[in-house]
Amino acid sequence: MNNYVYQHHDPITKEIVYVGIGTKNRAWIVDSKSRKKEHRNWMVEKFENGENIVAFVNTKMTKLEAHALERDLIEKHQPKFNRTGTKVYSHKKCGISKEQALKCQELRKEGLSYKAISAIVWPESKGYMQAWKSVNHFDAELLV
To answer: In this structure, how many other beta carbons lie within 10 angstroms of the beta carbon of residue 139?
Structure first.
């Protein structure tokens, strides 16, 4: 429970330009592997000017909770530096039927937690990663 969700925002306009999850000092790291070049350049400029661009949305979260909140905030704010598109998995490769994936997405829209969804769709399972993947990584239009 040491994950957090953070935002990078423009200090003048207050526009949210990036939403991410992290641990330790991730929100301040400018590295070439995980950020777009434009985002890195923007961060460097803001840091060189002594501007505070980091705001914490929530702390002390599990990784699963952080991913869910991150996705919700990205959908809500559409930050310009977040990568466009989402990773889409084959439900067959993950051992999840089309019906299960669609049911998970439907239940999440109704506001159920991933744990509650998992208990309904996979009552024999104790985890809820399958429910999270079904909601966050399967595009209903691509489920065949």
So the answer is: 13
Per this entry, what is the length of the chain?
Answer: 144
Between 135 and 74, where is the model more confident?
74
Give pTM, 2 decimals. Answer: 0.61
Largest distance between two CA atoms of the chain: 54
Q: Is 71 exposed, middle or buried (0-12, 13-18, 19+ CB in 10 A)?
A: middle
In degrees rounded to 5, what are phi and psi of residue 95?
75, 25
Structure tokens at 85: 């598109």
- Nearest C-alpha neighbor of 6 from the set 16, 25, 21: 21
Q: Where are the domains of the chain?
A: 3-77, 98-142
CB neighbour class for 6 (10 Å; exposed up to 12, middle 13-18, buried from 19): buried
Work out the angle at residue 76's Cα, subtended by the Cα atoms of residues 69 and 14, and round it to the nearest 5 degrees.
100
User: What is the rounded distance in angstroms from the CA atom of residue 97 to the CA atom of residue 134?
Assistant: 10
pLDDT digits (tens, 9 = 90+) for 91-117: 555 667 778 878 887 888 888 887 888
75 within 8 A of 140, measured Cβ to Cβ = no
